[in-house]
Amino acid sequence: MPGPSIIIYENQKITILVKNHMINEAVTIHWHGIDQLGWPAMDGVAFVSQCPILPGQTFNYTFQPRFGGSYWYHSHVGNQRDMGLYGAFIVLRKRDPIPLEFQHIVQIQEWNHLYNAMDLLYANVKDEVKSPNSILINGRGELKDNLAPLQIFHVKKGDRCLFRLIGTSQESTETALHFLNFGFPKGDSSINGRIFRWPTVSALTQPSEVDTDCSKCTDENTCHCSHSLNLKNGSDIIMVLLNLGTGATISHPIHMHGHTYKVLKMEFPEVSTDGNFTFTEDIECSNTLPNIKSSCNNARWRNSSWNDYNTIPGINTIDAVRKDTIVVPYGGYVIIKINAANPGVWFMHCHIDKHMVEGMALMLNESFEQSRRDIPNGLPTCHSYLTEMSGKLSATSSPQTIYTTDSTTHVLYAVVGIMTVAVLLLFGYIIWKRRTTSIASNNMEMQPTST
What we know:
CATH superfamily of the largest domain: Cupredoxins -  blue copper proteins
Order of helices and strands: EEEEEEEHEEEEEEEEEEEEEEEEEEHEH
Strand order of the largest sheet: 11-10-15-24-17-22
Mean pLDDT: 83
Number of helices: 3
Radius of gyration: 28 Å
Strand content: 25-35%
Structural class: alpha+beta
Helix content: 10-25%
């Protein structure tokens, strides 16, 4: 590890064939940081933008990156990324100031030398040994007596070099505001108390088979559901990503697929000289409970005039930085802005795999009705063995692919079974007939001729 680096030019269409050689694990590949405008089925999230690639299967990822930069690809199934299934994806600009031969790729990953990622996720391992022991650079690193070879970069004095560091850990007049609290209320990894339940089909192509009902969640209690946030086409979306309430324990790196977003403001807690944190009071978690005693599943601005984000003190609407991943600080919040102009179903989640797998994720159902034109013909579908899964991704969603109902499937199986039996009987009759004819012929040849 890591995997081979992929280097192309911006606006160059690329097709990448991914074949799953694993024996008993599915896989998908996400192209981290690529907005996939016009290519929503190529985002690479199992059961969101596609069905997983099963052992022995091959999937063709075809898309066209619009912007040059340092990106990366990685598995989006379970903890495969932490096990080393990742690599650099570099998009060169047509007139890059630094020639390619003077560019170097530096991929940085935390590594635990005692336990693999799956053991850390599921095994009963003591907390003190769960933290990473060292840092790997391009898959190489040392620990104590483990004197493994290190990554070496060769440069010459006077050369101008570019080191690409990759950490593997049109305006609308309508605006929508969403508060999303990332944390562990009641001990559950969740967003707004909704513990993400992965769909068992591809949400992009089979929306009628995805149940996104989260009505069992309340302001203070958690629930399991396929959490989906509906975004209206062409609208400006303001999201307040917060880390408050009883579930606030650590900071979270939050990644959004399908977009880069403007970071309008980042608010941190106050920290005293003795190391105590005072959380921000800009946000109100509950009408009846103080923030420190609330799960903060239904937050709002304490000052209602801030619902117009232009009035928020310290807001930057002039030259805001663009990101696809940002750390939401413990005890604070981040205000981001996107324009809903990339139809599809996009994943948003904590990029700490353990948190994501346990439920800190949601789907952005963006202008879904307009995404059907960008779904390639023949994209594989998959089906759930859970008969109770039903419901629609949104009120305006409609199935993008033809699928059979249970009754139709049973009839089809019956017809196929009858035809199979009929064919077998026909073959049996033909074989019996030939043998009977052959025996009769032999008997005639053995009879003596009369003189």
